[in-house]
Write a structure and sequence with these properties.
Length: about 150
């Protein structure tokens, strides 16, 4: 359950929304199974539903302006250490957002959720070697993005 929350959170950067999406994910999964449908790989199925819910949310979401951020109290000049950590975390998450969704998912699953390449391969129904190569390439693309940006 926590893994689905974190998955949604890294995609939306919103705690309450992520909790809602997580709940919707499990409700949709339960309804699907209750209707008598069978699922071969439940973990992959749940992540697929969560991913689709996030995509639906992004389609409805409007871009938040800098004025909105200022109204919410975001102050990039504040030298408070907590604000600095928050800014660094936001920078890292925005860097992840520049990756293709498939690359972002792989990095989150591997390095945030601590899934092994085998577990990810099972979820995606692919070979372990393929997943290992894809993770390596995703990390390389993220490194390139990070080097091109300045914090």
């Amino acid at each position: 359950m926590e893994a689905i929350f974190r998955f949604c959170y890294f995609k939306t950067h919103d705690k309450e929304l992520s909790q809602d999406l997580m709940q919707q994910t499990f409700l949709k999964t339960w309804a699907y199974l209750k209707d008598g449908h069978e699922v071969e790989n439940l973990k992959a199925f749940i992540y697929k539903i969560a991913g689709n819910l996030v995509i639906d949310w992004y389609r409805k979401k409007k871009e938040q302006s800098l004025e909105d951020l200022a109204e919410q109290g975001f102050d990039p000049v504040d030298e408070n250490m907590e604000t600095q950590r928050y800014a660094e975390a936001e920078w890292a998450m925005k860097s992840l957002d520049k990756l293709e969704p498939e690359d972002k998912d792989l990095i989150i699953w591997r390095y945030v959720e601590s899934y092994t390449p085998k577990e990810i391969a099972d979820m995606l129904e692919q070979k372990v070697n393929t997943i290992s190569v894809r993770i390596h390439r995703a990390v390389e693309r993220l490194k390139k993005i990070l080097h091109e940006q300045e914090f």
